[in-house]
Amino acid sequence: MSGTRNETRSGAATGMPGALVVEGLRKRYGDHTAVDDVSFTLAPGASLGIVGESGSGKTTTVRMLVGLERPDGGTVRIGGRDRSAPARGRAERLARAREIQMVFQDPYLSLDPRVPVGRCVEEVLRLHFPTGARARQARVAELLDQVGLGEREAAALPGALSGGQRQRVAIARALAAEPRVLVLDEAVAALDVSIQAQVLELLGRIRREVGIGFLFVTHDLAVVRHITDEVMVLREGRVVEMGATSALLDAPAHPYTRLLLDSVPRRGWNPAALASAGRGRPAGTADG
Questions:
Q1: What distance lies between CA 80 and its chain's CA centroid?
Q2: Contact present, 226 and 199 (Cβ < 8 Å)
Q3: In contact, 8 and 21? CB cutoff 8 Å
Q4: Burial environment of residue 89 by CB neighbours within 10 A (0 to 12, 13 to 18, 19 or more)
Q5: List of residues 6+ apart from 273 with CB closer than 8 A
Q6: Closest by CA position to 184, among listed 214, 157, 164
Q7: Which of 75-84, 205-214, 230-239, 261-270 has the least mean pLDDT?
Q8: DSSP state of 180
Q9: What is the model's pTM?
Q10: Which of 30, 38, 143, 262 has its CA at a distance of 20 to 30 angstroms from the CA of residue 280?
């Protein structure tokens, strides 16, 4: 990997229980190679940003991790278990889903418009955990509270919520499976800047409280600086640079990374300040 740094903690985490280990991942569509020899390790509770412009292979990579695409080569392991081959039966599919969950970019499309928010989250619990209705309802309330939503939002249909609230629901739904890894594919890209800040602050708090690992897929390096420990830069399906976030963004080694940095339009962007500015609104007020 040209320009790859050695200070990243990922390689040292390969033997850690619960680590996500990706080795030599490849995917082709006809004559086009979308992902070419991508390797990395996400330690338990760590946060890795995967960045690159459109077409760089970011989304294809994570779709293979969660089982939405089948790799043509390479391996994906979580906690030492190989996830590269198709799951054998319903029980294995559910077990894999409990290991890794994904939050998609568009909160307007990722929720069923006919299902109230509380029931949407409860269905995940019903699928994965054999508990009674009262225990499920209590857990739903806990999960929604964790993302800053309450009884009013639980009873509402997604169409009655703002974009930021819908993305919070999507995060709560993913957390309901109690995964080791949460993949966020451009999860704040469809939100206004101030709402992005609130969601990023929320994710940082959840990571500290739950100890879940994050894979944060984005083209926005201003966002990456505030949510990740490490960054992996993809270009045309290949890793061109990887390293600790602050070191890589402050002194990129590869020309492509420097080009991405030069394209960032919001150099003074401060999500903590923006999120604080949004806290003065009354409880239950739509957040964008």
A1: 21
A2: no
A3: no
A4: exposed
A5: 197
A6: 214
A7: 261-270
A8: S
A9: 0.82
A10: 143
